[in-house]
Write a structure and sequence with these properties.
elongated; 22 helices; alpha+beta
Length: 646
């Protein structure tokens, strides 16, 4: 155990020896003081003058190791000399004791939790300031030092990343004085896998929440199973024209440009100008939900029908359906027609888009990727990059296993979607016109399917590259294989090839081998203006965005989550009812227990009220039941092959 001292035990450093002594003193509830100490030996004694307990350790010759040479493991100090406060419970010792609690970056462990943990494990009472400083020391131990040291380690980390993952692309830009400016990372496995994904890239940016702030740029796409496939990340100073242009040019250099490529983003001005400069041949689509928020803000409308008509019009496949929905929308909101047309119908509607957007009409995959990193974005730069690598490494391994275990010709998600469409196709009538042309009757409407051109008048077949309900109704009547009508991007083969690459781990910093030009490079953090007070961690809502209030899964209350819940929970839960009456209520003229009222002459004693069952309450009262007193006390690639276009 770390807290045990015995003769001839060897420690890797003097700090490890002192940590072991401090933890042992807290566990065995005594205090010691350093009697003599220099670079070659150390002697510690119990603080009581008459106690015989002592430890002597010497440094080994030509080594950084220390060995315990003498240990008198007997205390002769009086028992009442022990106190709950320990002089050895310093901030750095507390940090060593609790650092394992912070292995998960999303772990919420407040200074008050540190105080409670040290009290329960070692019987030590800490002040709030010592607990806070101890938590910061634990952060530094697990996060490769301070934020400033993290920037200095970044060049060496990037060198090891390229050594362990050959083919990865890393770009680091610095300003005068070797100050950090931009960072771009694309793993070799992502570069190889993009060739087997649909050529639709979603880009977004979100703020970093560390000491030196900054902005995280992300580029992601969908794999064959409709899951997030990370392509590249970037870090810059802010979301401006220069930063976005630099990031997108790096994306183009790595993943190339294709006439079928689609870039989906929000309506940020810097993104629009950067896409025009970096991807002049690509189509730039707008996230329909960001445009919806802008629409509601401009016309100050919270009409649910406005949202429904807008979403339906944006997702419509054919022009006839779009015009009906768009007319209804414009009739309900005067001025919406001019506003949406000025944005450009082709940028936010599926029916007018010159390229296939497939089913990617929003930047939800980018928002989801940013949400996964919400706690990681608080870490120093090198630790943050390593956590992103670990996330991608874990995703690739899990999805590679899932794809290799798939026994169908299509991915799991596509198989489920085709099965649902087959069920709907069972109710449709098919009328054959010739060998390739069919008329499909779906309720009160009919659709024309041309199997020679791979088209359907609903246009889902052409735009999604998946058989629609009407095509599957034709397949049911003919000998066509439905899997042959699906794009290769949805096949199991492409799914497996997407995750064939492996993101390799990076060894511990003590095992790094970095050449002198990189190891001697001093990277400094960027210049930022420090603002007084706590740094903001919650983002500002976008225009028109409706914020949701978090709900606790423990007490069902609002405004907090389970990790920060401090509300007592009753030992027994029953029907919702009002709180149990306290003994003080017995002094009033009438005491009400649930639905029964005791008049003043026959009022029960306070003991009866205090021992009543905690679930007594009015059966129709919606307020939650208050717990009893007892309960309260225990609380470079190509884009792959596609099928024939229409």
């Amino acid at each position: 155990m770390l807290g045990d001292i015995e003769e001839n035990r060897v420690f890797r450093s003097k700090k490890e020896l002192m940590t072991c002594l401090s933890i042992m003193s807290m566990r065995k509830k005594f205090q010691y003081k350093v009697f003599k100490s220099n670079t070659s030996f150390i002697v510690v004694r119990c603080v009581h003058p008459s106690c015989s307990w002592r430890v002597r350790a010497n440094k080994l010759i030509e080594s950084e190791y220390w060995m315990v040479t003498k240990h008198v493991n007997k205390h002769t100090c009086p028992t009442d000399f022990k106190t709950t406060r320990r002089r050895q419970a310093t901030s750095w010792v507390v940090g060593e004791c609790i650092k394992r609690r912070f292995i998960n970056p999303g772990r919420v462990f407040r200074p008050r939790d540190v105080m409670d943990d040290m009290k329960q494990r070692y019987g030590v009472e800490l002040s709030y300031s010592v607990a806070w400083r101890g938590r910061e020391c634990a952060y530094e131990n697990l996060r490769l030092g301070t934020p400033e040291q993290s920037y200095n380690l970044l060049p060496g980390y990037l060198h090891m990343l390229m050594q362990t993952n050959p083919g990865s692309v890393v770009n680091l830009e610095v300003t005068d004085g070797n100050k950090f400016q931009y960072l771009f990372i694309a793993f070799a496995a992502s570069i190889q896998g993009f060739s087997y994904c649909r050529p639709v890239i979603s880009i977004d940016a979100t703020h970093l929440k560390g000491k030196y702030r900054g902005v995280l740029f992300t580029a992601v796409c969908h794999d064959a199973n409709q899951q997030i496939f990370p392509l590249a990340i970037g870090v810059g100073d802010s979301e401006n024209d220069a930063a976005w242009t630099w990031f997108l040019k790096r994306v183009k250099d790595v993943f190339g440009e294709n006439p079928a490529l689609v870039i989906v983003s929000d309506r940020h001005r810097s993104i629009r100008s950067a896409v025009e400069e970096a991807f002049p041949r690509a189509f730039h689509g707008i996230c329909i939900y960001h445009l919806l928020n802008n629409l509601k803000t401009k016309f100050k409308s919270k009409n649910k029908e406005l949202e429904q008509h807008y979403i339906a019009a944006a997702k419509a496949y054919n022009l006839q359906e779009f015009h009906v929905l768009f007319y209804t929308l414009c009739s309900a909101v005067p001025g919406a027609k001019e506003y949406l047309e000025s944005v450009g119908l082709d940028s936010w509607t599926r029916s007018h888009a010159p390229c296939r957007r497939y089913n990617i009409m929003t930047t939800n995959i980018s928002e989801s990727f940013n949400a996964v990193l919400v706690k990681v974005r608080e870490l120093p730069i090198t630790t943050f990059v390593n956590e992103v690598r670990l996330l991608c490494q874990r995703w690739f391994q899990q999805r590679r296993t899932k794809a290799n275990g798939c026994s169908s010709r299509m991915s799991t998600d596509v198989e489920n979607k085709l099965e649902q469409r087959r069920d709907r196709a069972q109710t449709m009538d098919v009328i054959c016109a010739d060998q390739y042309t069919f008329d499909v009757v779906d309720g009160d409407r009919n659709y024309c399917v041309d199997m020679a051109l791979w088209t359907c008048t609903c246009r889902k077949f052409q735009l999604d590259q998946l058989p629609c309900d009407h095509v599957l109704a034709v397949v049911r009547k003919t000998q066509y294989d439905p899997y042959d009508l699906c794009s290769l991007y949805y096949t199991r083969e492409f799914w497996c090839e997407t995750y064939r690459g492996v993101i390799q781990p990076i060894p511990h910093i003590s095992s790094w081998v970095v050449p002198p030009p990189i190891s001697t490079f001093q990277l400094n953090p960027p210049d930022v203006r420090t603002v007084a007070g706590r740094r903001r961690k919650r983002r500002l809502p976008s225009m028109g965005e409706e914020l949701t209030t978090p709900k606790c899964s423990r007490c069902k209350g609002k405004g907090h989550n389970r990790a920060t819940c401090q509300n007592p929970i009753a030992l027994r839960q029953s029907e919702p009812g009002p709180s149990l009456v306290s003994p003080i209520a017995g002094a009033s003229s009438a005491t009400e227990l649930g639905h029964q009222t005791y008049p003043s002459p026959s009022m029960p004693p306070p003991v009866a009220a205090a021992t009543a069952p905690p679930d007594v309450g009015h059966p129709t009262d919606p307020s939650p039941t208050m717990p009893s007193p007892i309960a309260a006390a225990t609380a470079g690639p190509h884009f792959g092959q596609t099928l024939a276009d229409s």
